[in-house]
Fold this sequence. Notes:
It is a single chain. The protein is of the alpha/beta class. The protein folds into 3 domains: 2-132, 3-Layer(aba) Sandwich (Rossmann fold), CATH 3.40.50.2300; 143-314, Reverse transcriptase/Diguanylate cyclase domain (Alpha-Beta Plaits), CATH 3.30.70.270; 320-597, EAL domain (TIM Barrel, Alpha-Beta Barrel), CATH 3.20.20. Helix 7 (175-182) packs antiparallel against helix 8. 38% of the residues are buried.
Amino acid sequence: MKILIADDDAISRRLTQKALERAGYEVLAVDNGISAAESLAGPDSPRLVLLDWVMPGLDGPSVCRIIRTHHDQPYIYIILVTSKESKEDIIAGFEAGADDYLIKPCDPEELKARLRAGQRILQLQDKLVHDAHHDPLTQLPNRALFLEKLTQCIRQAKQSTNYKFAVLFLDIDRFKDVNDSFGHSAGNQLIVQVSQRLTGSIRQDNPGEHSADISGTIRLPGSDILARLGGDEFTILLDNIKDVSDAIRVAKRIQENFTLAFSIGGHELLASASIGIAVSASGYSAAEDMLHDADTAMYRTKALGKSGYEICDPAMHRRAMSRLNLENDLRKAVERDELRVHYQPIVSLRDFQIIGFEALVRWQRPNSGLALPGEFISVAEETGLILPIGNWVLREACRQMHDWHLQFPSEPLFTVAVNVSAKQFAHPGLMSQVDQILRETNLKPISLKLELTESIAMREVELTVGVLNKLKAIGVRLSIDDFGTGYSSLSYLHRFRFDTLKIDRSFISQMSQSTESFQIVQAIISLAHSMGMEVVAEGVETAEQTNQLKSFACEYAQGYLFSKPVEQEAILQLLLKGSGSIYELPKLSASELLPKLA
Length: 598
């Protein structure tokens, strides 16, 4: 079994490594906390960890907290190894996420015994996870696992316009008659045989079009999932299909395979299945909605005479027309001067002075009111309209910030943060566009912060490093946005040279209710500071959150406690209340801050 040793003491690390290798472990050894967290990021990372408490970069407890934030990975068993032996230290180690605690110097036999205990716990935990996600009768994925995989597909579809998938919902016709006539044992046998036949149905296809696994079985592209929801209901997730014809082909193959009789307790039984199909082209945002549509289509099949398939997409035309209208209106939005930039103040947690703003685009859509980014940015990304929209927002934000610099001098000058989309960042003209806008608006580069999300930064690492270095060279400052929602490689964070790290609002909102979120925020701030970055907390809404962030030495914050994003006129009124070069937020309650100016 793989084991990670993280210890900055070279002699101790080497001795432990040799002892464990002699015991049959595959050992990976590192000498600092950042390398330890990085080594545990991948899907094939070690499941057993010996973690020294005191290490450069990140200490053992901080590494524990980072590891425990990623629930999508298999559980990692952590043993903290340290000379700290006070009751308070031991409790702190366990609260950070450690599973066991060893006092230095460690007896080799005791260490091996504790590792064996850790292995037993991991095996039990893996079995519990498997049982929680699989049907006990067929050993197929159950409803929970199916919905989890379907949710992943829905997320991927939102990020890639070319990615398509489908759900087939299958119900055995007249299954109740089998149970009533032959008993539940016969019904269970039929369920098992149906699951085997379905497995064969989704894995066979044209050998000229699809690949084969090592056993020679032809498989559909992607990662198809067959699940049993319960009773006589099965679902199939067809991943990465070309179009709906792939789903239809699988449905027809299932029908063909059901023409052969099932052998149940010495009896030959004929069975058929009704199938409903839902396709991703409908633009689903929730797994349950897509599953419901496939279920609805299946019942329509039964109503039409059973043993067939129906495609459920009743809203496709309506949604397509709505999207087309949205796209056409969005193309005209820039030329019609319908876009707006709202600004949300960013404040210093030291003295609550305004130090800058985040620029956020809005669309004043005719006859529809003010549209937020979530309503149109995805369409802008897919159609390429994000490039002219993004350039307009950048130019407008820089122009406005230069005007405010002249009207409201401060020391240091206000900064403006502007989000950069994936298409903007990948565009070869980004550098020249930024440089041109800065020259045209006379804004000093140091007053501009460009914000990238984790997912954008990690798409093409070498490209990211190159572009960020060029932006840094002209003086622009850089922020990594929504930190904690993805999984940034810690070693790459060093290479990216960000100036600021912004903690996602989802962690801030849970700090008061969740000890885990509280510790995650603390660990992220510690990590950012160790890499020379300042920290901005997003989504701050309460005084309690503010005090907690101040106790963590978080430098800046933004959120509804201070101000929601508002038009430039509202910001102007706020700044006019300043005294000299000091621009503080009004000393009012949270409910009285700025909304009445919006």
